[in-house]
Each structure stands twice: as C-alpha cells, then as structure tokens.
Amino acid sequence: DAKTTQPPSMDCAEGRAANLPCNHSTISGNEYVYWYRQIHSQGPQYIIHGLKNNETNEMASLIITEDRKSSTLILPHATLRDTAVYYCIVRVFIQGAQKLVFGQGTRLTINP
Amino acid sequence: NAGVTQTPKFQVLKTGQSMTLQCAQDMNHEYMSWYRQDPGMGLRLIHYSVGAGITDQGEVPNGYNVSRSTTEDFPLRLLSAAPSQTSVYFCASSYSSGPYEQYFGPGTRLTVT
Fold it and tell me: Mutate which of A98, A101, A107 to test chain B, going by most B C-beta atoms within 10 A?
C-alpha cells in the first residue's frame, strides 16, 4: 500500500472550513484513499473514501487531485467536536482483505 | 444494532498471566481484525479474519492468538502477558465484498505490570 504524508498538527477556528491535506505520491491506479478520525481515546471513526472522483457525504468532502498524488479532506463548518486525530490511508481493495495501515495522522484542534 | 462491542473496557494483568479480549459484531460482517495502539502512535494490525474459520497474521502478531468459530465473534488471546503488551486494543469489522468502511469498537485498555 502507498505511503501517506500528513502534517502532524493543524488548527482551525470554530465555524470555519478545516482543510486537511494528504500526500500519497506513490499511489497506484487501484488504490483507494480513506479518511478516519479518532476522537480522544475512542475507536477510529470512518469519515469518507474515494478512488478518483471527489466525494461528499454528511460529514465531509474529499477532493482528490487529477494525478491522484494528493488529496484534501474538508470539514465544511468545523465544530469543537471535530477536534481529533485524522488519518489518511491509501490501500488497494482486494476482495476479502480490508487491512488498513495507520500512520501518525494530523492532530486537528478546533479553537472557539 | 450494537455495532462492535469489546469487553472488558479495562484490564490489569501481571506478567505471565493469560487472558482473552472479547470482540463481537452484529452486522454480519465477514471481515474482523484486531489492532493495538501504543501512546502517541497510530494503530497497528495484530491479526485479522476474512470469515469464520479463517485467520491470518498482521503486522505485530507475536504473543497473540486468535480464532474465528462464528461470524459474530473474534476473540484475541494473550498467551503469557508481557509489559510490552500494555496498550489499547481495538477490534474492527467490515463487509469484505467491496471497499467498505470499517467499524471500530470502543477499545480495551490493558496494563501489564
């Protein structure tokens, strides 16, 4: 699976959009980009994933560059409850195998 | 749905003791896995299972055993606990027929003295 690079920490003001970048320059054509977050000591929570196209759900938007070498997770109106560690994970989907490799992630702090 | 449940929430063991961490899911997921998370670190995969009767090793399997006799349950056994196994353990599950999201349990915080 391709390696990812994320900034170790970021700050964002409450109510503003939080844009979390992820570099995955060695991504291959059949690898998906996943985002999870971990609030305090809880279990990780799935946010969104995509292959080539931009994706949006009720939690966030995922913007993947045309060359697929980087992506951005956007939380449109950040709240204090969005303070968490955010993990960008790139992996191949192989039927039956769902292994995720977690890096260090980005610690996002939402400030009032 | 209860989702993914883990018991116990907290456990303290002495070096050399054995124990089983329980994990259950009620979503009929084929895939289940165990991760450990050490302070300040990301999660590391211990063992995983793609269905009842099938298990395989992850990144850090030494010192742990698993079995999968039913779709719902995936227990993790520590054979002889060591201080290096002090960690938070998370169980996860998902469907395996597509690039689906994984659901994680709340974790078990284990301390080995």
Answer: A98
Residues of A in contact with B99 (CB under 8 A): 32, 49, 51, 93
pLDDT tens, residue by residue, A26-56: 888 888 999 999 998 899 999 999 999 899 9
Neighbour-count burial for A89-102, b at 16+ CB within 10 Å, e otherwise: bbbebeeeebbbbb
The answer to whether A100 contacts B4, with C-beta atoms less than 8 Å apart, is no
B1-34 tens-digit pLDDT: 789 999 999 999 999 999 999 999 999 999 999 9
The pLDDT tens digits of the residues spanning A5-19 come to 999 999 999 999 999
Output the six-digit token pair for A53: 């196209």
